[in-house]
Amino acid sequence: MNDPARAATDSSDLSGFSFRDSSSNPDTPVQQPRLWCGDGWTARVLKNEDDDGWAVAMIKDGEPEPALTGPWTMGRDKKNPKPLDGAAFSTLVKTASEFVRRHEQQLHAALHQSLEVDSRGARVTVLLDIVPDEDNPYALLSAQDESGVQLAAQRVSPGFKLSRASATAWADGGFLKP
């Protein structure tokens, strides 16, 4: 796809497309009917190639891919998209920011788990921290006493399942490799 005008409207291929003119000042907001930049985000209205509708892609400045892509409203002529405006852009920024925040929270929750268990008459917090390295992923299983002092740490498989039973068994077993 060598035609830049086509690349700007093709919703299926956003790779290699700069959402901001490289010669423009990144602090200067762009406010055009199909392109709106500001607050660290860029909104671009794109032709939906799957049907007769339009879509809007929200990309966070510095990111290679859109954080969120969704349908966009048709204009009054039922042919062209409704132009972007300040209110719509603010709503899109809020929605995209919330989407990114929820995704980051879910990722953090999946990678960092903890449980409190009773073992040998004491309260122990068992933590599992997964390191999703592309070449060598692993997890670190650790235990802390009530004051936060580390009692043990073991490197385990990233597929290790932390449950109340596995945490209690590990603590009761003297923190030997599970």
Can you walk through the features of this model?
The chain is of the alpha+beta class and 178 residues long. The protein folds into 2 domains: 4-84, no CATH class; 111-172. Helix content is 23%, strand content 32%. The chain has 3 helices and 9 strands; from the N terminus they run αβββββαββββα. The protein has helices at 4-9, 86-111, 164-172, and strands at 30-31, 35-38, 41-47, 54-60, 68-72, 112-119, 122-131, 138-144, 150-156. The strands form 2 sheets. It has a 5-stranded antiparallel beta sheet with strand order 1-2-3-4-5, covered by helices on one side. It is elongated and about 75 Å long. The relative contact order is 0.09.
Strand order of the largest sheet: 1-2-3-4-5
Mean pLDDT: 87
Q: What count of structural domains?
A: 2
Q: Helicity, in percent?
A: 10-25%
Number of strand segments:
9
The quaternary state of the protein chains shown equals single chain
How many strands, what sense, and barrel or not for the largest sheet? 5 strands, antiparallel
What percent strand?
25-35%
Determine the structural class based on helices, strands and strand pairing.
alpha+beta
Low-pLDDT runs of 5+ residues are: 1-23
Using only C-alpha atoms, the radius of gyration works out to 24 Å
- Please trace the helix and strand order, writing H or E for each element: HEEEEEHEEEEH
